[in-house]
Amino acid sequence: MIEQTATAGVDLAPTMRPGDRRRTRVNLKLTLGLLIMGAVVFSCLGAPLITSQSPTTLGADILGGPGGAHLLGTDQYGRDMLARVLYAGRVDLLIGVVLVGVAMILGTVAGLVAGWYGGWIAALIMRIVDVGFAFPFLVLVIALVGLKGPGLGSLLLGVSLVAWIFYARLVRAEVLAIRDANYIRAATLSGFSTPRVLGLHVLPNVLGQVLVYGSSDFVYAILLGASVSYLGLGVQSPTPEWGAMVQQGQNFVASQWWLSLFPGVAIIVVGLGCSLIGDGLADVLRTGRR
Questions:
Q1: Is the separation of the CB atoms in 125 and 110 below 8 Å?
Q2: For the whole model, what pTM was predicted?
Q3: Closest CA to 62 of 81, 77, 72
Q4: Which of 14, 102, 134, 276 has its CA 20 to 30 A from that of 193?
Q5: How high is the pLDDT of residue 21?
Q6: CA atoms of 77 and 58, how far apart (whole Å)
Q7: What is the rounded CA–CA span in Å between residue 246 and residue 258?
Q8: How far apart are CA 275 and CA 168, in angstroms?
Q9: What pLDDT digit, counting tens, does each position of 235-266 carry?
Q10: How far is residue 89's CA from residue 244's CA, in Å, rounded to a whole number?
Q11: Residue 6 has pLDDT above 60, yes or no
């Protein structure tokens, strides 16, 4: 009776605050996105464990439907579609990693310098950025790739020369927002060198936004590589690449639908995984600032 009186009116059930529910959703997004991308990376890198077929070996079973010895069918040259989709993933993931990595590094350095020093250095860097934004991005990339000639190297070089401008503008804005913060002033007045202040105090506080944008940009980098390859200026045959495979199968889409469907689905899956990771990181960043 005493225990009942003491606990009367007290809710013993655990409550979940709005922030806890938000973190739960964030964890679900990140977990699902990481699981999707982990499965894609494992499948592509472990392609020899999944199929013994070669992605470039010609076969007698031309335009064979999915099933039997060829789980995803064969293309117009008798090549196994499963092997081509998996090995093409290696190429597209490489494109995404290289393009985003180079653009992120160059753009972050340029944005840090422009935001911290200001003056004519910032003016010069931002004028170059403005010139890059003045042209349609895809048209500019195609023009740069066309100057060097089709191929994977031309694609990586052409995009890397342009894509850094997005990161430079983002990082500069973040640096300007925190440059006069008290902890930055304290670090400066303590006699720390400029590289130490930028590396240990400024960069960690702008890196979150860069990573969020980079996760979304990874999707765009793959789509851009697929688009350029679709136009015949990117990865060249017989090397498999998702965009080129979609282009090669468009003439057979009415009857041999699997030629374009499966590489297209692969692009969608990667896009979904990266988008979930980007949304999750953005939510984590917003929650951490509250």
A1: yes
A2: 0.77
A3: 77
A4: 102
A5: 52
A6: 6
A7: 10
A8: 22
A9: 777 788 888 888 888 888 778 888 888 998 99
A10: 12
A11: no
Structure tokens at 204: 């960690």
Dist. CA 115–CA 118, nearest whole Å: 6
Most confident of 91-105, 149-163, 209-223: 91-105
Do residues 167 and 108 touch, judged by C-beta distance below 8 A? yes
Q: Report residue 239: phi and psi, to 5°.
A: -65, 125
Amino acid code (one letter) for 221: A
Q: Which residue has the tokens 């670090």?
A: 187
| Contact of 74 with 113, CB cutoff 8 Å | no
Please write down the HEC assignment for all residues of the chain: CHHHHHHCCCCCCCCCCHHHHHHHHHHHHHHHHHHHHHHHHHHHHCHHHHCCCCCCCCCCCCCCCCECCECCCECCCCCEHHHHHHHHHHHHHHHHHHHHHHHHHHHHHHHHHHHHHCHHHHHHHHHHHHHHHCCCHHHHHHHHHHHHCCCHHHHHHHHHHHHHHHHHHHHHHHHHHHCCCHHHHHHHHCCCCHHHHHHHHHHHHHHHHHHHHHHHHHHHHHHHHHHHHHCCCCCCCCCCCHHHHHHHHHHHCCCCCHHHHHHHHHHHHHHHHHHHHHHHHHHHHHHHHC
Q: Residue holding tokens 């003056």? A: 119
Q: How far apart are CA 214 and CA 97, in angstroms?
A: 10
Q: How far apart (Å, rounded) are the C-alpha atoms in residues 250 and 136? A: 26
Question: CA dihedral defined by 120, 124, 126, 127, rounded to 10 degrees?
Answer: 130
Give the pLDDT confidence of 24-72 residue by residue, as tens digits. Answer: 444 688 889 899 999 999 999 998 998 888 888 887 788 888 887 788 8
Q: Under 8 Å CB-to-CB from 219, ≥6 apart: which residues? A: 96, 270, 271, 274, 275
